[in-house]
């Protein structure tokens, strides 16, 4: 019987082993990771005008509302009346950060979200409509919009609207606008802002002559709407941030409060300031300095954030030269030392 032998010569065996080893070496070779930045950075070296939504008229009093990774902006503008009264207008802010080269890109444009259109159509009045603030309440599951509108007496009172969160193309019922009787007086009230814990509300009023920033505790046992419509309660003046001049437009994010003031010692007109909450008190206000403020007016700052970024961003309005006209909206990355 003839045997068939499988035979490989020593030379061929060496060649096969070299090929196998080479393939193993290539597969284990470390490939350079293209990602150089684990988290994004909002540009904090340049103040950028949001030209995509700015107009030749006054655009300010902006509110952020994050939805599906984009920021919907609701802000006050007198563009619809060609420089007359202020109404609420909507826009959208989009941004991205390239983790390979650190480049940050920002775009803003006028938007026409169907639900937001319905919301601001119901919020707008025949008079001035200013200082919108939108937020979601986990207490009662409603989204809220609080703004200041001109009353028949000519003063500004705060009003609120609420709705169940909008999903898809369905437009939920919008309740309001209803007066914020808890805080309104015969003077001017506006720029409502909850703190991060949602246990304290901040706003400004000129009930004592000039504008001051006030605070009031929220009763967490009641829904926000019931609390807003309850009997008037005298608020507490936040003396550590107020001055003898006009201190307005407070916005609170975590332990930082940002606001505008025309107090002496600033760079010019209204300047933007921030205060840090520490050991149960708000610290002495700090001017943002010339990187943000100018000899003109800077007004109504709002802080935005994204957990994928190392810092925060701030949108504010200014009537500085170089914009499209009047007050324009501007964007800048900011950091706070908590």
Description:
This protein has 338 residues and is mainly beta. Helix content is 10%, strand content 39%. It contains three helices and 21 strands. Strands 14, 15, 16, 17 and 18 form a five-stranded antiparallel beta sheet that branches. Strand 19 and strand 20 form a beta hairpin. The chain is globular and about 65 Å long. It starts with 9 loop residues before the first helix and ends with a strand. The model is unreliable at 1-28 (pLDDT under 50).
Give the SSE layout.
Blueprint: H1 10-28, E1 48-49, E2 59-67, E3 70-77, E4 87-97, E5 104-110, H2 114-123, E6 129-136, E7 143-150, E8 156-163, E9 174-179, E10 189-194, E11 200-205, E12 212-217, H3 224-228, E13 236-237, E14 247-253, E15 256-261, E16 271-278, E17 281-282, E18 286-287, E19 298-304, E20 312-318, E21 328-334
Antiparallel strand pairs: 1-21, 2-3, 3-4, 4-5, 6-7, 7-8, 8-9, 10-11, 11-12, 12-13, 14-15, 15-16, 16-17, 16-18, 19-20, 20-21
Please describe the structure with a list of short key phrases separated by commas or semicolons:
four-stranded antiparallel β-sheet; about 40% strand; five-stranded antiparallel β-sheet; about 350 residues; mainly beta; disordered N terminus; 3 helices
**Assembly classification:** single chain
Radius of gyration: 27 Å
**Pattern of helices and strands:** HEEEEEHEEEEEEEHEEEEEEEEE
Largest β-sheet summary: 5 strands, antiparallel
**What is the count of helical runs?**
3
Global mean pLDDT: 88
Overall shape: it is globular
> What portion of residues is helical?
10-25%
């Amino acid at each position: 019987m003839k045997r068939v032998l499988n035979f490989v010569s020593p030379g061929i065996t060496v060649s096969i082993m070299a090929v196998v080893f080479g393939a193993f070496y290539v597969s284990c070779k470390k490939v350079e990771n293209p990602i150089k930045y684990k988290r994004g950075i909002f540009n904090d070296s340049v103040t950028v005008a949001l030209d995509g939504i700015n107009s030749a008229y006054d655009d300010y009093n902006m509110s952020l509302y994050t939805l599906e990774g984009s920021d919907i902006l609701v802000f006050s503008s007198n563009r619809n009346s060609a420089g007359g009264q202020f109404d609420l207008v909507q826009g959208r802010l989009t941004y991205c950060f390239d983790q390979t080269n650190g480049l940050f890109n920002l775009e803003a444009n006028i938007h026409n979200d169907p639900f937001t259109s319905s919301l601001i159509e119901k919020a707008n009045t025949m008079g001035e409509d200013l200082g919108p603030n939108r937020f979601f309440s986990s207490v009662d599951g409603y989204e809220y919009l609080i703004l200041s509108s001109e009353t028949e007496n000519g003063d500004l009172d705060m009003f609120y609207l609420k709705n169940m969160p909008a999903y898809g193309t369905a437009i939920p019922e919008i309740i309001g606008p209803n007066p914020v009787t808890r805080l309104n007086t015969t003077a001017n009230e506006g720029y409502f802002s909850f703190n991060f814990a949602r246990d304290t509300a901040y706003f400004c009023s000129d009930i004592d002559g000039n504008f001051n920033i006030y605070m009031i505790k929220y009763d967490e046992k009641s829904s926000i709407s019931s609390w807003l419509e309850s009997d008037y309660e005298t608020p507490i003046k936040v003396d550590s941030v107020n001055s003898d001049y006009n201190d307005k437009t407070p916005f609170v994010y975590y332990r930082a409060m940002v606001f505008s003031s025309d107090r002496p010692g600033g760079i010019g007109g209204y300047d933007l300031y921030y205060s840090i909450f520490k050991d149960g008190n708000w610290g002495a206000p700090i001017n943002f300095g010339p990187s943000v403020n100018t000899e003109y007016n800077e007004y109504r700052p709002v802080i935005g954030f994204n957990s994928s970024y190392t810092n925060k961003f701030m949108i504010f309005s200014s009537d500085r030269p170089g914009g499209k006209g009047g007050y324009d909206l501007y964007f800048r990355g900011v950091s706070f030392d908590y």
